[in-house]
Design brief:
The protein is built from 20 helices and 20 strands. The protein is α+β, with helices and mostly antiparallel strands. β5 and β6 form a beta hairpin.
């Protein structure tokens, strides 16, 4: 309902046979491009602000172009960049990227992949990734103290320069070894390309970072790699056979592209890198020690494709877990209740929710109550008219409820800002005259910002936070103002000690916060009563046991950088109120 943006999607392919092998077997020189295109289109959900690809050909003669890159902005970026493909660009290595910005920065210069050029093939580096680094200030200070001067202040460019510097050192080390052996000329170049170790480059680069990432790269000499953060926050999956090595952000992408079974595909483990040498040999290597697993649960709830066999079952279980709370909200009156969902991402959780009732012997009534129309252009200038037009993005199935008799239980995957509920959903649902609306979220209350690649970085954006701050202003149970100032001081003076923002929620129950959210989001003149039902933290972990990362719900950030940024966000919020 309220679209969250996610950064980003990656795709990599290494062809292990000579290029003419694929042309003879598959009937086209563009086999690698066709597969990369399909992998990127299947991950279009992960990024619609820009796209890019890079290729490396290891069979080109010296002095001719061997490394190609294309980038474009906008929702049609994939079509645009693949429309520029020529046979000259075909190679053995392919890398693609889809971008969503979580930093507010836009422009072609921020679209991946990023390329660092050099006359020596082994020193050419091309990077892309699904990441957000939480300590980029410290990394910037580190590399500028060494004398480097990045042209652009962003985690992507700074990573390119830091890793590029380490790649230079690795090449130079191999150069010294070759000279010590008495090699000359092209023999030195060949020695470097055959003996350089990307694991050394990755170890000396990635140890500096705090954040969630899957970092992917190509070198001009034919090295390919992907490394995952030590907490396993961001996902990556790979496949190997005697023809190809491929990696993507999601497992079904590989299944569909290469006609595979789930068991054929492996997950890259926390802190681990998949490294492919120039000669096509591949291996896994532990680059950083694995930390406590904090795989992102939002990947399972919302971002990743629901066609993954495990994610499909997990989303159904999220719906099942909500059955007792919903039953309580409708006073067990299942007979006079219609169950539905907000299109489209909550559909699987909806199936689980209705299954949960059927498992308890209830005969539930289901309807497609809400329809999402095409995005309407809000070109009218006045705010009231623009808001009225925005309210009609959704429509309802008239006659699907018995007016003033039926409850309406309607599920969504999450409730973030609450804007769409207030301006559109609640208004349009009230036209059906339900006895009561029970708005259900398959995820728990979102209370804290994310700093690992999801577009929600400010506390004041969350309706749960705003409701809690309103309760602190009103409560007589405690001195709310004193608590706010206590938390503000702690966030400012001791940002690395703990996530102090968690204290703001301690005085109130989930139900108290829910009631305040309803009061804030309820449109004027709405007739039907509203009750909110959120997933519990326990229900989340039971449904998604292998993805325990829950910092947006609990405030337990897996890295110090996330905790520090959350405290900083509260300081920024209070400071903005005092201006």
């Amino acid at each position: 309902m309220e679209q969250l943006k996610h950064e980003c999607g990656v795709a990599m392919i290494r062809l292990l046979k000579p290029l003419d092998y694929y042309e003879k077997k598959y009937g086209t020189w563009a086999y690698g491009f066709n597969k990369l295109y399909l992998m990127m289109e299947k991950q279009h959900n992960r990024g619609q602000e820009g796209a890019g690809f890079a290729t490396v050909s290891m069979s080109k003669e010296a002095g001719t172009e061997y490394m190609f890159r294309e980038k474009a902005e906008g929702k049609n970026a994939i079509t645009e960049i693949f429309g520029r493909v020529t046979e000259e660009m075909a190679g053995e290595l392919y890398m693609g990227h889809l971008r969503y910005s979580t930093t507010g920065k836009s422009g072609l210069q921020y679209v991946h992949p990023f390329l660092r050029r050099n006359n020596w093939r082994a020193k050419n580096l091309c990077l892309c990734g699904n990441f957000n680094m939480t300590n980029i200030d410290e990394v910037f200070d580190y590399i500028t103290a060494q004398g480097q001067s990045p042209r652009i202040y962003s985690d992507s460019y700074i990573t390119l320069e830091l890793m590029g510097h380490r790649l230079d050192r690795e090449v130079e080390k191999c150069f010294d070894e070759a000279k010590a052996q008495g090699l000359e000329g092209l023999d030195i170049t060949n020695y470097i390309e055959d003996h350089m170790k990307m694991a050394n480059v990755l170890r000396t680069t990635m140890k500096h970072y705090d954040g969630g990432f899957v970092m992917c790269g190509l070198t001009g000499s034919g090295e390919m790699f992907s490394v995952r953060d030590p907490w396993g926050i961001r996902p990556a999956f790979y496949y190997r056979d005697d023809e190809i090595i491929a990696l993507a952000s999601e497992r079904p992408v590989l299944q569909t592209t290469f006609d595979l079974q789930a068991e054929d595909i492996h997950e890259l483990m926390p802190g681990e890198a998949l490294i492919v040498r120039k000669n096509g040999e591949s291996h896994l290597e532990q680059i950083m020690p694995a930390q406590q697993l904090s795989a992102c649960s939002f990947e399972r709830i919302y971002f990743s494709r629901g066609s993954d066999c495990d994610i499909y079952q997990e989303r159904k279980r999220l719906g099942v877990q909500l059955t007792p709370a919903i039953l309580k909200a409708i006073d067990s009156d299942v007979e006079n209740t219609v169950f539905s969902y907000i299109p489209n991402t909550a559909e699987v959780a909806y199936y689980g929710m209705t299954d949960g009732f059927r498992q308890q012997g209830y005969n539930v009534r289901t309807e497609k109550v809400v329809w999402k129309d095409i995005k309407l252009r809000t070109f009218i200038s006045t705010n009231n008219e623009r808001n009225d037009l925005a309210a009609h993005v959704y429509d309802v199935s008239y006659g699907s409820l018995k007016a003033h008799v039926d409850n309406l239980v309607i599920i969504d995957d999450s409730i973030v800002r609450g804007t769409t509920l207030k301006e559109s959903i609640f208004k349009i649902l009230d036209r059906l005259h339900p006895k009561k609306i029970v708005m259900v979220s398959s995820s728990p209350q979102i209370r804290y910002p994310d700093y690992y690649g999801i577009d929600m970085a400010r506390l004041e954006e969350f309706c749960v936070f705003r409701a809690t701050m309103a309760l602190l202003e009103e409560t007589t149970r405690i001195d709310g103002q004193a608590l706010i100032q206590e938390v503000y001081k702690a966030c400012k003076e001791r940002p690395m000690e703990a996530n102090h923002v968690r204290k703001l929620y301690e005085p109130f129950t989930v139900d108290e916060i829910n009631q305040k959210i309803v009061e804030m989001l309820r449109p004027k003149d709405m007739q039907a009563p509203i009750e909110l039902v959120f997933q519990s933290i326990e229900g989340l972990h039971e449904a998604c046991p292998n993805h325990p990362g829950d910092w947006y719900f609990t405030g337990h950030y897996p890295t110090p950088g996330g905790m520090r940024l959350c405290n900083k966000a509260f300081v920024n919020y209070i400071d903005s109120l005092q201006k």
